[in-house]
Amino acid sequence: MSPEFLWYIPNQVIPGHRGDAVTADHNSLSTLTGQARSLEEYGWTGALIGTGWGRPDTFTVATALATATTTFEPLIAIRPGYWQPAHFASAAASLDHLTGGRVRVNIVSGKDDLAAYGAAEEDQSQRYARTREFMQLVRRLWTEENVTYRGDHYQVTGSTVTPRIAARTGRPHPKLYFGGASAAAERVAATEADVQLFWGEPLAGVRDRIERLRGLSDELDRALPPLEFGLRITTFVRDTTEQAWADAEAKVAEMARAYNPGAPRRAAVGQQRLLDLAARGEVLDDNLYTAPGTVGGGGAGTTWLVGSAEDVAKSLRRYQDLGITHFVLSDTPYLREIRRQGAQLLPLLRD
């Protein structure tokens, strides 16, 4: 399948996310809509919108941006526990109907402030067992009528979601993206996800994980179409290779000045894999920069692909050769980089 290129829109209460320059009205409707409309203008498919207690509600933000755009596809991050599956299936079906099929969903199982919204803390095995049931039930509610489901975590009787999801070519329902690198997470991805998202690991690590997940899909008798794969990573692009590395090193030096190495840092399995990369070298493959993770960079900001548009496009094509077909890229300042990378990087990737 042809690769798809999405961005990231930061729905944050505190300004300055990953060094973003916008501070006044940083999470206002006008600011976020401006980013979404620029994504349309510069040829991006849509954007991931993150989730977590203590941030603006992701589904509300996604709905607002979808109504202010015409082609923008929100990849809406949501958490089982915060949502009941039937409630979410209904809300997403309604938004998908109203937007003509533009909804995508990213299921997040990582730890959150569960007690703040009334969910119970669970160990890892229970957390992923709940996620498995959530994905199974949401998919059934989108594709079947009069669903009765009896799981350990969720139960419904005679449930039908209206309006119905309109099946589209190659898309019977909104795609369910999923992340996680633990053994429990990979078993859920192998059987229930549509797209497995990876962080910015070196090529060899991504290759190994793709091979393992494909093997697990066969071993566990996956009943869905073949699992697809995506990459969530920071792309640090400048006009020349030399300028990119000079700016990247300067930005890391600035991060280091503000970094508190004694601050607590919660690292899931996938995040820890990224942090451990720095021990193998500051630059891996051709241009995967690990230094940001040593000075507080987290998530997609732990490793960066650094270089000219040609350098970064070459690296992303190598991930594509491994089987990656969904790319979620970003850098800050967000609006400037939407435009820069939309003008310089996307045309090379689409060629």
Tell me what the structure shows:
The protein is of the alpha/beta class and 351 residues long. It contains 12 helices and 13 strands. The protein has helices at residues 29-41, 58-67, 85-98, 124-143, 183-192, 203-219, 241-258, 269-276, 291-294, 309-322, 334-344, 346-350, and strands at residues 4-9, 46-49, 73-78, 104-107, 147-150, 155-159, 176-179, 195-198, 228-238, 283-284, 288-289, 304-308, 324-330. An 8-stranded parallel beta barrel has the order 1-2-3-4-7-8-9-13, surrounded by 6 helices. Helix 1 packs parallel to helix 11, helix 3 (85-98) crosses helix 4 (124-143) and helix 4 (124-143) packs parallel to helix 5. It is globular, with a radius of gyration of 20 Å. The protein starts with a strand and ends with a helix. The model has no long low-confidence stretch (mean pLDDT 94).
What's this, in brief?
With 351 residues, this protein is of the alpha/beta class. The chain is built from twelve helices and 13 strands.
Assign an overall shape: globular
How much helix, percentage-wise, in residues?
40-55%
First-last Cα distance: 14 Å
Cross-sheet strand order for the largest sheet: 1-2-3-4-7-8-9-13
Beta-strand content bin: 15-25%
Mean pLDDT: 94
